[in-house]
Amino acid sequence: MRPRNYILIFLFLTACSSGGDSSDEMVIAPPTETPKLTDEELLTTIQKQTFGYFWEGAEVNSGAARERFNIDNPDVDSHVVATGATGFGLMAIITGIERGFISRNEGVARIEKIVSFLENADRFHGVWPHWIDGRNGKTIPFSTFDDGGDLVETAFLAQGFLSVRQYLSDGSEPEKQLAQKIDTLWRQIEWNWHLNGGNTLIWHWSPNFDWRINLPIKGYNEALIVYVLAASSPTFPVPPEAYHLGWADNGNIKVEAISFGQRITLKHVGNPGSVGPLFWAHYSYLGLNPHNLTDDNANYWEQNVAHARVHFNYAVANPKGFFGYGPDTWGLTASLSMTGYEAHNINNDLGVIAPTAALSSYPYLPVESLRMMRHLYEDLKPSVWGKFGFYDAFSQQNNWFPQRYIGIDQGPIVIMIENGRSGLLWDLFMGSPEIQTGLQKLNFNIP
Hints:
Elements: H1 2-17, H2 39-51, E1 68-70, E2 80-82, H3 83-99, H4 104-120, E3 131-133, E4 139-140, E5 149-150, H5 151-168, H6 173-187, E6 204-205, H7 224-232, H8 240-247, E7 254-259, E8 262-266, H9 300-317, E9 334-337, E10 340-343, H10 355-359, H11 366-378, H12 381-384, E11 385-386, E12 389-390, E13 404-406, H13 407-421, H14 424-430, H15 433-441
Antiparallel strand pairs: 1-13, 2-3, 3-4, 5-6, 7-8, 9-10, 11-12
Helix pairs in contact: 2-3, 2-13, 3-4, 3-5, 3-13, 4-6, 5-6, 5-14, 7-8, 7-15
């Protein structure tokens, strides 16, 4: 009440000093709250703030997406570029242009800078590594034996490439030339090299350790887009058998399971009873439109909606009794945690919520996703919101609110909200003629 008393005294003295008559009625306007944003304003605000990660937060020399950003120490690893997050960043730039966050000229100039950097960066049979040094384009090893090509990260980049190529293909002459440069990089990716003579794509290859890691891309996870792109390649395609025998494990990818009231139809090789972290429903579908997308294994729209609904229902049930969980705080995915990076899911729940999980599920559960957005923005904002939108993760249970970001988590927020609003990135990527051909080769029924 103290500030209000000061206001009353100030207004009274002002009235007296200005010759006010004691008989005059002194009207004091009641305090007003900041008006709440409409749903559309809230969506745009979140997209714009998050877009900043890929704009002013980009790696300085290359313009590409940084792997991470620590508000308390922004110079830490400032040179580490993430290949997958850069693909997401390219799609975010298109969104930024269309939403008016930046001009088209600004966006195209940044895309040109990124593409020129990637053109001259380390590649291994056309495949980029997971991490690249933004100062010189050299590989930064992701782990002991992972110092070469990363096919999954490259697929995330290629998804962005094709979206940008389609966006620029009918533009000005310089834009068409840039689109052609992107097309060349896409055509140089040797997808079939990663079969290593078999019928399943292998995640990594190293010039120093060859196929030492030997991780097959098989069974449901975030990597469906890898097989779609590999089958769609006009230059180094993989045969349909790689998808059917490798990824789908000759039909064994299918499962009939009920999880928190939802029917799940696809399984992961290592954990067949789990729907997995929510990024499985995001990364492959930033450009690949799951609406009416079906094959012999699944209806991918129904699978993704059920996946998101499982996470929502789990948070509402809150079987571990974590503080803060509920209909306005939900979604588990790979993110930072109190002990490092962790693939959070309903079978590995540490009480950590990553905003990207629910926010990037906006196309699947718009009402529930918006409810989460509004709660974070209006109720928890000082603790979870910063320079580049919502921080990567937090835990009310553990009173843990780090001011840090990870690029691969920020990108889907911008992109999937846009897909839910306008379908922009879905329309661009699906408009690629070779993607239509590739999906048909794999016996997908497509919109």
